[in-house]
């Protein structure tokens, strides 16, 4: 069932058009998240959908009825809004704040019946907030306040809840708690949720639809799994010195330095080393990694030069030769200790090549395993127990430097 629809909607202030020509549909029980850079118009859209701001052009429909035709109490029973404004409410408790949400049902005198009180406790329960019911709202933490405001919205018994950045200022536990409450409301009670977020990862993993807003227009709308690609998210925020990996949901700093270190990666062993070297401004290239390896995902997002192999296939001689030529161009090789199964055993040949070429080699591999693989002892090989020991032995930042 269509809960909210916009037709050629343009929102803004006076003669300033902020977002133009919006045509979207949100169904019952869906969670729609608006993503976009600061100032792109997320709050302006949400205020317009909540009837707090008149559209400049076009129309908004709630359950097929024009929003402009829906009056006060009737709208409050359908739609509840949680905005970012901070409330200063003196000596009101959490219970009192949630009780304010009952006004569409209590009438002008606002007298609470037993059933209103029961509803308020139920809403406090939904946000796991019974224990803060008697505490003063002004004395609550940001996370607790956010949950109380959500409970106040729930007390209206709405079919749609609109929230502007409900996870801002919250730690990761509270962000996830708020999102999990919203998900529960949408799935179990069929409430439609429309919100804006700055947490891309949480948005892509928790919402049913996402809308990307930039420079006065909706640049994409649809399933997060399709809309939230590496490129679309990087473009949305004009990310230049980093990359977004939609598959893993991480942002990785780009490594733009000339490579001086080659990392033999694989099985996720390369990731902490890529990240540490990137943080220190040291250029890296890497191999030989299968294209379905997590090291490949991170390395490609960082923009590293990679020697890679087709998933599940044995490393080819040609790939090995190309990796050797990458090693020729660096001073140091780090053996991350990647597992050496049948399909990637050639990485040990690569390690032997690095040693025989006189490169400085730092390895986190088990000593016994190395002795089984390498024919002789090499003076240019240093065994390390951890990534930090690798970094200690990298000789960066000058003599005596502990980077
Ligand atoms: N009351 C107002 N009158 C005029 N312009 C406004 C008003 N409020 C916001 N704007 C402008 O509208 C544009 C969109 O602002 P809006 O707050 O909707 O963006 P946003 O995407 O929510 O940003 P943020 O992520 O920083 O909260 C901005 O250029 C802003 O300066």
TrEMBL record:
Ranges of residues in domain ABC transporter: 4-240
InterPro entries the record matches: AAA+_ATPase (IPR003593), ABC_transporter-like_ATP-bd (IPR003439), P-loop_NTPase (IPR027417)
The keyword Transport belongs to this UniProt entry's keyword annotation: yes
CDD domains named among the record's database cross-references: ABC_Iron-Siderophores_B12_Hemin (cd03214)
One GO MF term attached to the UniProt entry: ATP hydrolysis activity
Keywords linked to the UniProt accession: ATP-binding, Nucleotide-binding, Translocase, Transport
Official protein name in the record: Iron complex transport system ATP-binding protein
Species annotation: Lutispora thermophila DSM 19022
